[in-house]
Structures are given as C-alpha cells and as structure tokens.
Amino acid sequence: MKNWKILHPPRAFARSISKVTACFLALALVVGSFALFSGEAVALGHDAANNEIVYIRNVTSGQYITTSNNTVSANKELTMVKGTEALGQRWKVQKSGNWYVFRSAVDNNYVMSIANTSNGTTLKLIQVSTSTAFASIPSSAKFLVNSANNYGIFMMSPKLSYDASNTKFLGIALPPLNVDKIIQQPLYTPLDAQASQMWVFESNVRMISLMNYDLIDAGGHSDWDGSTKYVETFQAAINRWNNAIGSTVLRKRTGLNIKDFTVVDITTVPTTGELYYAAVTADLVYILGVLVTVKNGKLSYYTQFVDGQHYLSAVISPIQQKFIHMHELGHVLGLEHTNGRGNALSSGANMYSYSLGLDDLASYNSK
Asked: Which helix H or strand E contains 93, and what residues bound it?
C-alpha cells in the first residue's frame, strides 16, 4: 500500500472506501463543463481590464515578456524568460476598445513597443508619459488584441503593421522554443499551426487550489506504469511539468520502484456516465471521516474523445493532446481546478493552454 500524501481533511463524512474521480476534461465547447468538487466555477474567456497589472505569457513556450534586471531605459530590448513574477515581468494595461498599450510596472512612463514591421524584429521600451492621451501614443506601442478562442487566449497585431495594410502578429521563433528575443511572424493558417502567436494575460493575483490528496509517494516521486497510444505527447507533458518544477517528480516506473498510478486507454464510454477526455481516479479510504489511505491511482484516456471523433468537428492536434496530459498530470500532483486565465488547471476544456501558468506552479509550490 503506497504512502501517498494527504493534503487536507475532506469535507465529506465517509465511513468506507469510495472511488473518487479527481478530474475529467469535459467538452465545455460542446456540452458544457462539469464540476466535481464544490466551488469549481468557470470564469474564463475574459481579457485584461483597463489599468490591470498582468504577466504576458506565450502559451507555447511558457515564457514571459520581460524587461531584464527590473530596469527600464529608452530603446531597451525586451526578452522572453521563465516566469518569476519579478517586477520586470509586470505590465499595466492601458486600452481603448481592442487597442492595448502595455506600461512597465517598473516605471509606467515606459511602454512596450515594436521596433519595426519586419519579420524578426524585436520589442523594446520607449518613453511615453502617463499623461499622454491615448490617441497621441505612438503606433509602435499600440497592439490590436483579438481573442484566439473563448478561454482567455489572445493574438496581438502591432498597429504599425495594421496601418501599413500588412497585418502581422506578435510571436516567438519556432524552433527553438527557448528563444530570448521576441520576433514578429506573418499569420499562419490554420489557427493551431501558429500557436507561437498566442498569448495569455495572467493576473497579478495568484489562485491556490489543491485537492485533498495527490499521487506522489513518500520519496517525492510519482511513478507511472501501463501504456497509452499517446505516449509521445504524454511524455512531452511530463517533461514540461518536471522542467517547471525543477526536478524529476513524474517518471516512468523502473526496477523495484512501486508504481503510484497506472496509465490506460479506454475505448468504451466510462461507467461513470460522464463524457470526458481523461480522468484521474483513486480509491480513498476514510475512517470516521478522516482520509487515511489513497490507493489504486489511475489515469484513463477515453480514446474516442482524445482522437477528436466524438462531438468534435475536427481532429485534436498533438499540441492540444499535450494540454490534456498536462491538465490531468496536474491532478496527479494534487492540484485542483483554478479559475485563473490560461493555466493548465483552468476549469473547462481550455484546449489552447499549451504551457503551465503561474497559478499552476504557485499551487504546486504551496503544498
């Protein structure tokens, strides 16, 4: 019997063993989103408010637009780095309709600006007083923000290119993902093919959300066994989590390591009667209402959903599959749904969050 961590006592009073489904990725785009635990409200699909402080994350790389060393100066180039919640990664939103200006939280008199309309150009800071009327702010510092879907993911078109009738979208170089400079790229089609141009405006306020158990053993690992046809994207999601955590917590079971959960593909509608892509389940043993044991962890993929053949009009891409894995692995690690924008654990079928958000990592680090 594996010694999994129990995060906090359950609210329900139970006397025996109960099978608990930690999560299912419901078809929110088609049949609505399901909530298992109380308080799982879906509050996605909203953009940044005027004067809100946000972190601007590229959803593919998971990196943030940053002014390095928390300093500002005229014509300083901006970079893309891992999220640290540093002051240099915070931007104050100023907008008029769908036109946005991003002022550095280091000094609001400096704004994010595009250098020119050439492919491969960089972002830089320019000095624009906070007293400057919006209409008088240079076009190089204005970005037309359009929703890429209904889940808080956006694309940004520099006004310079818009004015030149040669609309382009802010993006990052692919490959590689680990670039340290922002570039501009022309629009690609279909939408999924250019996820490098999708952005999230993450809130400056963290939302910590944990389940009452996880599938991490006493040694600090979560060893999986079993098999899945999605092994390539599954492993990519594991790598994303381990890299973000900074250690190999999720790993394939080897040798005498005791498995913490089993990965399986299922081809029939789940017996729970719910419609979902994937689910994390476990047997929870309560004594007098206190959770004392967690066993038989399982991560199940309903292949008809994950393959995009059930209630969907298009095949789910590999990068969308990776999100499904990242979401479910978050539950393996003990994370509950969050209502924060653009996180892997965001409620509902947020099929475009290809990277982990600050709420995801804050919740994990809070345990």
From this structure: strand 90-96
Residues 275 and 305 in one domain: yes
Number of helical H runs and strand E runs in the chain:
5, 18
Average pLDDT for residues 197-221, to the nearest whole number? 90
User: Which strand (E) or helix (H) includes residue 17?
Assistant: strand 17-24
Omega into 318 within 30° of 0, i.e. cis? Answer: no
pLDDT tens-digit series, residues 96-127: 988 999 999 999 999 999 988 887 788 999 99
Give dist(CA 171, CA 126) in Å, integer.
20
Domain CATH number, residue 248: 3.40.390.10
Provide the residue range defining the domain that includes 24. Answer: 17-43+208-365
Task: Judge whether 78 lies within some domain.
Answer: yes
CA proximity to 44, closest of 146, 152, 204 = 152
Distance CA 24, CA 16 (A): 23
Q: How confident is the model at residue 6 (pLDDT cuts 50, 70, 90)?
A: low
Q: Tokens at residue 136, please?
A: 């008088």
Domain assignment present for residue 100? The answer is yes
Whether residues 238 and 187 fall in one domain: no
Of 84, 74, 173, 156, residue with least CA distance to 121: 173
Q: One-letter amino acid identity for 206?
A: R
126 and 253 share one domain: no
